[in-house]
Amino acid sequence: MYRNRKPGRPRPATRPKAHDTSALGLGLVINDAALFFPFKELAKGEPSFEYDLGGQRITIHYNNAAPTAWAEDSSGKLLTGVLVYDANWQRFYPESKMFRAGE
């Protein structure tokens, strides 16, 4: 569980209670178009909105209380996406664009 703990040292007294989500977001790839939706940008707008990606109209949903996000196609079918940190997304999709609220 604590793989970064040096042998012979005690475990931490408490486990972290919060998870750093400042760089977390939703990554989507549709028709070879990759886009990363950072949670911090999604939090600036409406909880649901439509967006064009890869020639397809999709709906992005964001729940700040969870925090989580997901995408649906125009018929309401859940699309395959991944919740990921921005640096990791960029490693897999270096040409990916980043969503910015209001653009």
Q: Can you offer a commentary on this structure?
A:
The protein is mainly beta. 11% of the residues lie in helices and 37% in strands. It has one domain. It has a 4-stranded mixed beta sheet. Strands 3-4-5 form a 3-stranded antiparallel beta sheet, with no helix packed on it. The protein is elongated, with a radius of gyration of 17 Å. The N and C termini lie far apart (41 Å).
- Strand numbers in spatial order across the main sheet: 6-1-2-7
Radius of gyration, CA atoms, in whole angstroms? 17 Å
* Biggest sheet layout: 4 strands, mixed
Q: Domains counted in the coordinates: how many?
A: 1
Task: Tell me the total number of β-strands.
Answer: 7
* Separate helix tally: 2
* Distance separating the two termini: 41 Å
Tell me the series of helices and strands, N- to C-terminal: EEHEEEEHE
The secondary-structure class comes to mainly beta
Short description:
The protein is mainly beta. The protein has helices at 39-42, 86-92, and strands at residues 24-30, 33-38, 48-53, 56-63, 68-72, 82-85, 97-98. Helices cover 11% and strands 37% of the residues.
Main attributes?
single chain, 103 residues, mainly beta, four-stranded mixed β-sheet, three-stranded antiparallel β-sheet, 2 helices, 11% helix, elongated
List the helices and strands and how they pair.
Elements: E1 24-30, E2 33-38, H1 39-42, E3 48-53, E4 56-63, E5 68-72, E6 82-85, H2 86-92, E7 97-98
Parallel strand pairs: 2-7
Antiparallel strand pairs: 1-2, 1-6, 3-4, 4-5
